[in-house]
Amino acid sequence: MKHTRFNANHRKLGARMIEFAGWDMPVEYKGIIDEHLAVRHAAGLFDVSHMGEIYVTGRDALAFVQHLTPNDAGRLAPLHVQYTALMTPKGTFVDDMLVYCLGYEHYLLVVNAANTDKDYAWIAGQKGGFDVCIENASDRYSQLALQGRKAETLLQPLTDIALAGMKSFTAAYGKVLGKSAFVSRTGYTGEDGFEIYTLDPDPGPIWDAIIEAGKPVGLLPIGLGARDTLRLEAKLPLYGNDIDETTTVLEADLKWIVKFKKGDFLGRDVLVKQNEEGIRRKIVGFELLDRGIARPHYPVFIGGSKVSEVRSGTFSPLLRKNIGLVYLPIDKTEIGTEFDIGIRDKMAKAKVVPTPFYKRDY
Asked: Does domain 280-353 have CATH number 2.40.30.110?
């Protein structure tokens, strides 16, 4: 297994470690519910160094990124960030990712850990006649995510970057604890926060400094378990569960990242047709009316017939409800629609509810 440069920090804090996408990663420290609520009420610190970082540089860098993605990277000024998809010709997902404009001939694509090698191979295979250089720089990066309403207050004393003036989905170069870093106001929790990228070979002191600074306000280190429950409450999709190469961007309720007017991109023709004819299914949020937790792949029934499977499902530590995501036929996606989920040997009633399940109020 690969180890992030914070591996010793996790073990020092007594983290329960598991294998995830080939990495030795913390799944929890004090417990998923406590960690989840710490992020919602104060702040949490995540090691996300397992994520992939791919550079696209050269004269045709923007044109190439536009070819790969449905969102309009042409709108990005330097040091601005965009959520988007890495597309197949079928209008489905190779992955979802963040695109950072580091310069008009220099883009950074941040992709999911489990997909890094696959994504890099896909991107390289699309190069064709584009005048670009593609580099998988993932092993050189360490990345932390500091998330929660206390994030800015905790990070500001440790960095020379003026955080108060940094807007969401922008980034800046500077130093964190005296180490060169690249900081963006982004995250995967539904909270305000920052992601800290560094190429420093010894980033461990940054982790320790944030943990120490956060103790008085209730910051906790956060493992993969709470990362999943946090992102689900905020209805942030997880590749392999909620989106994959069988789900189109429109079916995934992500039409807002599709900019048809920007010109051609992989899968555009399929999405144009689907947009004109209407989608036949869509992902929706649900909560269980009966007892039980609906886990991924549990069967979903309407009128006694199986129509789908649960994509994501968990107990919401904040809402104290059992929630999840599922694709349903488009005529069954109205708020309040009820359906059944097979949980072990019983049927549990569920209903479609508005999403996101949680939205921050600050």
From this structure: yes
